[in-house]
Task: inverse folding
């Protein structure tokens, strides 16, 4: 029952982050959305910061589990990177609350630890992409590091674009084209 209630709280936070346009999510609002009292909220999480951190951790795990799976696959490096790129953007499309977290838009100074985790998330994502690219570095126009940086920057920019559109301009409508343009500038063939 405790894990069910925790999941409800996390889902409620994700939903509020989707719905709220830069409005602060208070514990009172989160408790109301979760259909529990604020006291019950604090029985499951020691602070609001901990709720944000756990939601971020859940999404972080999902993305890096997929990256790990792709790194171990028999796909060519170019396909591994493409699948990572597409998976990330589709995950963002389906998890709008996470989009607000990794853009840092939903975070206040009270959630500095989550903001630090976001910075580490992008560093780890870039490193993971760099490792995939290094498997076929002879086919790259630039170094694996520069190429990975370009891809990570593009991903972060597309998250911002999706949020600016108020989640109306879905990445799945354009992300294949973005990948094709990136690919031309990263791979020799």
Result:
């Amino acid at each position: 029952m405790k894990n069910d209630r925790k999941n409800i709280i996390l889902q409620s936070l994700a939903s509020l982050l989707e719905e709220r346009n830069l409005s602060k999510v208070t514990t009172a609002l989160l408790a109301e959305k979760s259909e529990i009292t604020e006291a019950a909220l604090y029985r499951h999480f020691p602070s609001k910061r901990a709720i944000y951190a756990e939601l971020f951790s859940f999404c972080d795990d999902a993305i890096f589990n997929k990256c790990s799976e792709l790194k171990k696959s028999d796909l060519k490096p170019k396909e591994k990177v493409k699948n990572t790129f597409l998976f990330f953007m589709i995950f963002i499309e389906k998890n709008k609350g996470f989009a607000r977290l990794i853009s840092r838009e939903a975070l206040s100074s009270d959630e500095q630890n989550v903001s630090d985790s976001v910075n580490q998330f992008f560093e780890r994502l870039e490193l993971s992409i760099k490792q995939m690219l290094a498997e076929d570095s002879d086919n790259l126009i630039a170094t694996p590091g520069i190429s990975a940086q370009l891809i990570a920057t593009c991903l972060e920019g597309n998250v911002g674009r999706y949020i600016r559109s108020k989640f109306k301009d879905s990445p799945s409508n354009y992300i294949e084209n973005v990948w094709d343009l990136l690919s031309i500038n990263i791979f020799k063939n």
